Amino acid sequence: MNTKQPNAMISLLIISIIAISTSAILAKWTNASPSVLSMYRLWFTCFWMLPFVLKRKTELKALEKKEYKSFALGGLMLAIHFILWYGSLVFTSVASSTIILALQPLVAMILGFFVFKERTSMTSKICMIIAIIGVFLIGFGDIGLSMTAFKGDILSFLSVIAAVLYLMVGQTTVKNTSHWVYSFFVFAFSALFLTIYNIITFDNFFDYQSTDWLIFIASAIIPSLAHIINNYLLNYVNATTISMSILGEPVGASILAFFLLQEMLSSFQLVGGTIVIVSVALYLYQQQKETIALKMEANNSSSA
Question: Where is the signal peptide (predicted)?
Answer without folding.
Answer: none
